[in-house]
Automatic annotation (TrEMBL):
Catalyzed reactions per annotation: 7-phospho-2-dehydro-3-deoxy-D-arabino-heptonate = 3-dehydroquinate + phosphate
Associated pathway: Metabolic intermediate biosynthesis; chorismate biosynthesis; chorismate from D-erythrose 4-phosphate and phosphoenolpyruvate: step 2/7
Species classification: Bacteria, Bacillati, Actinomycetota, Actinomycetes, Micrococcales
Record-stated family: Belongs to the sugar phosphate cyclases superfamily. Dehydroquinate synthase family.
Its job: Catalyzes the conversion of 3-deoxy-D-arabino-heptulosonate 7-phosphate (DAHP) to dehydroquinate (DHQ).
Keyword annotations from UniProtKB, A to Z: Amino-acid biosynthesis, Aromatic amino acid biosynthesis, Cobalt, Cytoplasm, Lyase, Metal-binding, NAD, Nucleotide-binding, Zinc
Cofactor(s) needed by this chain: NAD(+); Co(2+); Zn(2+)
Organism encoding this protein: Nesterenkonia aerolata
Recorded GO MF terms: 3-dehydroquinate synthase activity
Amino-acid positions noted as binding NAD(+) in the UniProt annotation, renumbered to this chain: 102-107, 136-140, 160-161, 173, 182, 200-203
Gene of this entry: aroB
Annotated ranges, domain 3-dehydroquinate synthase N-terminal: 99-209
EC numbers: 4.2.3.4
UniProt name for this protein: 3-dehydroquinate synthase
Region called Disordered, residue ranges: 1-39
Positions contributing to Zn(2+) binding: 215, 278, 294
Length: 399
């Protein structure tokens, strides 16, 4: 065993030893993400397990051939990382830990270089594996390390945030940030498995959980109305990590993402639907220098997209109004400051969905009916923004 840290260790942040909390273990739900067919016609894909106390399932996800496993986790999750390492050693692997900086600080080329160094010094070969333990920042960074080491080794994700479970760990997008922007460098690299252990959510701060729910709501609007009904029936339960309702929401959101990415593993078309609410959200994140949580920005972005679709005559009033009701019931922001339009428009113009000068938005033409729409004239965006904007004191409330 060896344990290496990218920087000097800091005090313990969030101990979440999943295997120790696994007393009440119920059968996990298994969702399969299909990613096409192999050269021999075999079905390619991987499983996402959702449940409690899933650590014992890790060897099954890593597969039989690996001898060495690199566990990558942030400092804040050192206790969980240590439990994972111990379990792997008990299962007969040679487990090595790479502790990386927290959150976006971990998505840095120097952190990737540190992980490559650990892999090299410990003789990792093509048949060995990487395990990520952490939120979306860690799945992105560890996924990138796995995608690039020896041109690709296996990676299993153990997401510990709601956003990580329903979004970042599923779909195979990996990436790091550069000085010029977020996620500009990366690769598609599908995991061999994902363990969404609900026990890890017990220590997640409430605002992180609520931010993750914005992506769950998105899945409801683009593909699964039952998600919206569950939240409407009991918005408090949707935020309770002990609740079976939250578990059902997570499973349903993963199922939506799995269906969409299975049909479009390289993001060439259908996957655009997952960007519902994200065009304005990215512009808000940029305007806020990434001090807003992604989910909070996506929440405002969905309200905007619904208003835009309504004003273009594409979406009925009831579905448009439902956005505001559900998102505010969860405590998510639904408005943004009215003095930032020019900056937001600049961010919207930089969005990756645009082709040339043509502005494009994912809009609904009904529940479960997302389409990418070309916006002929930015003036309609401005008029719509007036409908959702508020004075800076009330329109810039982060989670
Ligand atoms: N690849 C994709 O498809 C995809 C999709 C969505 C988002 N992302 C990426 O995901 C990242 C955001 O992910 P995130 O929202 O999970 O943020 P994060 O990974 O930064 O985690 C948020 C915070 O929660 C802490 N944390 C994590 N798990 C915890 C736990 N169980 N208990 C207590 N604290 C815990 C982390 O240490 C961190 O401080 C962004 O970098 C984004 O680009 C990627």
């Amino acid at each position: 065993m060896s344990h290496q840290a990218a920087e000097e260790p800091s005090p313990e942040g969030a101990p979440t030893p999943s295997s120790q909390q696994a007393a009440a273990v119920s059968e996990p739900t298994r969702l399969t993400v299909g990613t096409g067919t192999g050269e021999g016609g075999e079905q390619l894909g991987y499983d996402v397990l959702v449940g409690n106390g899933l650590l014992a399932r890790l060897p099954e996800m890593i597969g039989p051939r690996a001898e060495r496993v690199l566990v990558i986790h942030p400092r804040a999750l050192r206790a969980t990382g240590d439990v994972v390492r111990e379990d792997l050693e008990n299962a007969g692997y040679r487990a090595v830990v790479a502790e990386i900086p927290d959150a976006e600080e971990g998505k840095h080329i120097q952190v990737a270089a540190f992980c490559w160094q650990v892999l090299g010094q410990n003789g990792f070969t093509r048949s060995d594996a990487v395990v990520s333990v952490g939120g979306g920042a860690v799945t992105d960074a560890a996924g990138f390390v796995a995608a690039t080491w020896l041109r690709g080794v296996r990676v299993v994700h153990m997401p510990t945030t709601l956003l990580g479970m329903v979004d970042a760990a599923v779909g195979g997008k990996t990436g790091i940030n550069t000085a010029e922007g977020k996620n500009l460098v990366g690769a598609f690299h599908q995991p061999t498995g994902v363990l969404a252990d609900l026990d890890t959510l017990l220590t997640l701060p409430r605002n992180e959980l609520v931010a993750g729910l914005a992506e769950v709501v998105k899945c409801g609007f683009i593909a699964d109305e039952r998600i919206l009904e569950i939240i409407e029936e009991a918005p408090d339960q949707a935020q309770n990590p002990h609740s079976p309702r939250l578990r059902e929401l997570i499973e349903r959101a993963i199922a939506v993402k799995a269906r969409v990415v299975s049909g479009d593993p390289q993001e060439s078309g259908a996957r655009e639907a997952l960007n519902y609410g994200h065009t304005l959200a990215h512009a808000i994140e940029l305007a806020e220098r990434y001090q807003w949580r992604h989910g909070a920005a996506v929440s405002v972005g969905m309200v905007f997209a619904a208003e835009l679709a309504r004003s273009m005559g594409r979406l009925d009033d009831a579905t448009a109004d439902r956005h505001l009701m559900i998102l505010s019931a969860l405590g998510l922001p639904t408005t943004y400051r009215d003095d930032r339009w020019n900056q937001l428009l600049e961010g919207i113009r930089r969005d990756k969905k645009n082709r040339g000068d043509q502005l494009r938005f994912v809009l609904l033409s009904g529940l479960g009916q997302p389409t990418t729409v070309e916006i002929p004239d930015a003036s309609i965006l401005y008029a719509t923004y007036q409908e959702i904007a508020a004075a800076p004191e009330t329109g810039a409330i982060q989670l």
